[in-house]
Amino acid sequence: MKNVIRWLVFTPLAAIFTVLLFLAMRALISKEFQPQDKGETASFEINPKVEDIKVIERETKIDKIKQVITPPPPPQIERAKADKPTEKIASIEGAVPEFEAPKIDASNFKITVSDRDAQPLVRIPPIFPPRFLQGDNSGLCKVRFDVSPEGQPFNVEAYRCSSSQLKNATVKSVQKWKYNPKIVDGRSVSRSGVESTIRFDLQDERGRKLPLPSGF
Predict the structure, then answer these.
(1) What pLDDT does residue 47 have?
(2) Number of other residues whose CB lies within 10 A of the CB of residue 171
(3) Pairing outcome for strands 178-180 and 182-184
(4) Are 133 and 161 spatial neighbours (Cβ–Cβ below 8 Å)?
């Protein structure tokens, strides 16, 4: 029953809607066709001309080259000069006989050379330890050593020094000394028990020699 009522109600409405739609389509078709105005024609250049860009050149004035003044050379630093050793040639225990010129024996024409003790030739002064240079006293070291047949000191021993800082410097200095070897019966032999004293003298601001520590 409901379906029948719906059919009776919607069928006239659908018919009316269809008629209205038909009339609207007819009205649209009946109007004359009016073409639209053509738009502006666009043109393009394939190889357009590019205007040259003007480069602004800046005028730069170069000043004249001034004369270069060569700077003075750096000041020369005076190197500290080592003081001349004030220690005299070491005296060796016992009398040292003077060297005699070779004598010619007329009987057999042999050259004989008198015996002599070891004689110092070269003594290298010691290098002062930096810490010792800052002290207030001078120093010394008594050293004992042997001399080889070639005149080279060995068995060097610094047995009494005013400062322990001076022992190493004393030994290194004596090891560089050179001696005329001891001669016995015309042959060079070793000499033992050579003794010497090496001083390490310091000066004050007025150039006066600083004294040794008490007891030396």
Answers:
(1) 62
(2) 17
(3) unpaired
(4) no
